[in-house]
């Protein structure tokens, strides 16, 4: 029996070895390279292989880096909040209101934005929000305003709107999956016991949908904090986030050690925030149960 188990284990290891090595090469190698560079010294147009923690000291003590990092966290949190709040009603409607034979069509329509490039969608929002864009032209044509509005582009609001639209399908789909797994008899039992629809939603539907909400939060929060294109185009380069600062250090200033330290620090902060959120959500679910 032991020999049979060992043979099965060896076959299992042989089966997972190729994808494991591929993942190690594609994911771990770049991360280890960035981590190594973050402890090296920047020279003139070259990287001096002298080990030093000075890059991290500069990252944590530089007020500009601190400001940009806090702005990135704030924008990402705001985008996540807006996206999830708008995605939940859509997912709820598709799951509970739409007839079963129509759900596939709705999901198909929700995923249509994936057909176009992310960069094209960002440019479209720049056209919509621009000085002579769709919104300003419409308001001017209707006589509502005399001059085009200048505060709807190149600011945090425009960045939040663009990112919320870009990541809406990523939030809708996991929430929809969580809602689909809810046993409808539990909702009927709550109403039979005299609970209103609002209280049934608050005490039954929402807690059971929290795994999907949590997945949506993490799926939106993690990539938006490192978004580079939207702050550059929609923000006009006036509202840089941490990814823009990393790009400046890596390419414009050719300071790869400091850029690597910024990247590692950003990843560590995102991981810490995600872990804290997971722990809070776990306590919330235990309290609800």
Automatic annotation (TrEMBL):
PANTHER family: INNER MEMBRANE ABC TRANSPORTER PERMEASE PROTEIN YDCU-RELATED, INNER MEMBRANE ABC TRANSPORTER PERMEASE PROTEIN YDCU-RELATED-RELATED. This is ABC transporter permease. Residues 69-279 form the ABC transmembrane type-1 domain. The lineage of its organism: Bacteria, Pseudomonadati, Pseudomonadota, Alphaproteobacteria, Rhodobacterales. The keyword Cell membrane applies. The chain crosses the membrane at residues 20-40, 73-94, 106-131, 151-179, 200-222, 258-280. Keywords: Cell membrane, Membrane, Transmembrane, Transmembrane helix, Transport. It is found in: Cell membrane. It comes from Paracoccus benzoatiresistens. Belongs to the binding-protein-dependent transport system permease family. CysTW subfamily.
């Amino acid at each position: 029996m032991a020999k049979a188990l060992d043979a099965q284990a060896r076959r299992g290891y042989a089966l997972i070895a190729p994808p494991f090595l591929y993942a190690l090469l594609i994911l771990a190698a770049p991360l280890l390279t960035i981590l190594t560079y973050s402890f090296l010294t920047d020279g003139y147009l070259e990287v001096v292989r002298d080990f030093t923690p000075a890059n991290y000291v500069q990252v944590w003590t530089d007020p500009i880096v601190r400001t940009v990092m806090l702005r990135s966290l704030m924008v990402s949190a705001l985008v996540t909040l807006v996206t999830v709040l708008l995605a939940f009603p859509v997912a709820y409607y598709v799951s509970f209101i739409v007839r079963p034979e129509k759900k596939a069509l709705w999901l198909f329509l929700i995923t249509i934005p994936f057909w176009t490039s992310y960069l094209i969608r960002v440019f479209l929002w720049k056209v919509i929000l621009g000085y002579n864009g769709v919104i300003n032209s419409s308001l001017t044509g209707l006589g509502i305003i005399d001059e085009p509005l200048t505060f709807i582009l190149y600011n945090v609001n425009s960045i939040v709107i663009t990112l919320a639209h870009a990541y809406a399908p990523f939030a809708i789909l996991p929430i929809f999956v969580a809602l689909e797994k809810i046993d409808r008899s539990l909702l009927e039992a709550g109403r039979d016991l005299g609970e209103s629809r609002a209280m049934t939603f608050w005490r039954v539907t929402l807690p059971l949908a929290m795994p999907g909400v949590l997945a949506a939060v993490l799926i939106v929060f993690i990539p938006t904090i490192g978004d580079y294109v939207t702050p550059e185009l929609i923000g006009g380069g006036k509202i840089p986030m941490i990814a823009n600062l990393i790009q400046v250090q890596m390419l414009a200033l050719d300071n790869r050690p400091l850029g690597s330290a910024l990247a590692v620090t950003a990843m560590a902060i995102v991981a810490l925030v995600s872990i804290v959120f997971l722990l809070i959500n776990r306590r919330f679910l235990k309290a609800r149960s």
